[in-house]
Amino acid sequence: MEPKSFLIVNFAELKENIQSYTSKNNLSIAVYIENFRNGAYTGINEKTGFFPSSLIKLPVAILITKKIENGELSFDTMLKINDSDRTSTFGELYKTEEKQLPVRVLLEKMLKESDNTAFRVLARHVDVEDFQLVLDYYNMDVNADFQDVETTKHQNLLSPKAMSTLFSSLYFSTVLEPKNSEYLLSLLSDSAFDVRQAANIPDGVIIAHKFGYTYYTNFNYFHDCGIIYIKESRIFYCIMTKDLNEKQATEAIGHIVNEIYNYVKNTRARFDNYKNNG
Fold first, then answer.
1. Lowest-pLDDT range, 95-99, 148-152, 186-190, 255-259?
2. Mean pLDDT across the chain
3. CA of residue 44 relative to chain centroid, distance
4. Which of 21, 75, 145, 229 has its CA 20 to 30 A from that of 62?
5. Cα-Cα-Cα-Cα dihedral of 208, 147, 177, 166, to 10°?
């Protein structure tokens, strides 16, 4: 790890730019940004709780992977798909004629495509006690009986700041073995929601992220949280939106991620130029 990767410690200008954008457009948004290489951070309403939507799938993936490490499951274990698991709310897996699929495929469907059928299958194999323990560990205000991400009967709340503990756990491998943390991050870097395109960021930039999407009458949430890999920098971001339609939310998330990327890239360039010519 090169010392220069720690240089960005001040996000004041970035915060001001994001606040100006959200105020100008009257957006109901919370944002948290952290440099995982040195702990520098900033936020806007970052401790405000939002309906978590599909962000809850990530701790389920971690718990399933932990079961694999403990020998209770393997990536090749075949899990039954019950008729009650099939849901058209998000994803295409409900259309499959397969009666069972391996854990690896279900994890890929759940994290890459945010498939709710895959989530239901995997969630049935998560112990409530273990789930609550992990949620408490990550300081997530979500009940362990939260088994159906597409219903509105639960008023669980999740904040952008809380999501940072989840992603830092993967990045630093505090719960899973490094190879398995990297595996989950690799799945997150191939998400169905192309945040790079929304943010107009070059394809070569890796963003390991999870999106959450819930739209019902008077119940509109779209979130995106992840790690942007910019040279040696590892910048976590979490953007949660409320009461925006899908187009508005996508544009807002894209704009803010673009602001983060360019701020880090340009700040690094200035520091590197100073170092080289100083």
1. 148-152
2. 89
3. 17
4. 229
5. 50
Three-class SS of 155-196: CCCECHHHHHHHHHHHHHCCCCCHHHHHHHHHHHCCCCCCHH
- What residues does 224 pair with on adjacent strands? 211, 239
Which of these, 40, 202, 187, lies nearest to 118 by C-alpha position? 187
The amino acid at residue 227 is I
Among 113, 226, 214, 90, which residue's Cα sits nearest to residue 155?
214
Are 144 and 123 within 8 A, CB to CB?
no
What is the C-alpha to C-alpha distance for residues 111 and 134, in angstroms, rounded to an integer?
18
Of 234, 238, 228, 180, nearest in space to 204 by CA:
228
Question: Averaged over 33-50, what is the pLDDT?
Answer: 93
Answer left, alpha or beta for residue 139, where phi above 0 means left and psi between -120 and 50 means alpha. Answer: left
Which of 94-103, 134-143, 224-233, 262-271 has the least mean pLDDT?
A: 134-143
**pLDDT by residue (tens digit) across 49-88?**
888 889 999 999 999 999 999 999 999 999 999 999 999 9
In sequence order, what E strands does the chain have? 29-35, 41-44, 78-80, 100-102, 206-216, 219-230, 233-242
Contact assessment for residue 123 and residue 100, using Cβ atoms and an 8 Å cutoff: no
Considering only CA atoms, give the Rg of the chain.
Answer: 19
Residue 40 to residues 80, 239, 271: CA-CA distances in angstroms? 44, 17, 16
Residue 14's contacts (CB-CB under 8 Å, 6 or more residues apart) are 33, 42, 259, 260, 263
Pair 176, 186: CB distance under 8 Å:
no
Rounded Cα distance, 255 and 194, in Å: 13
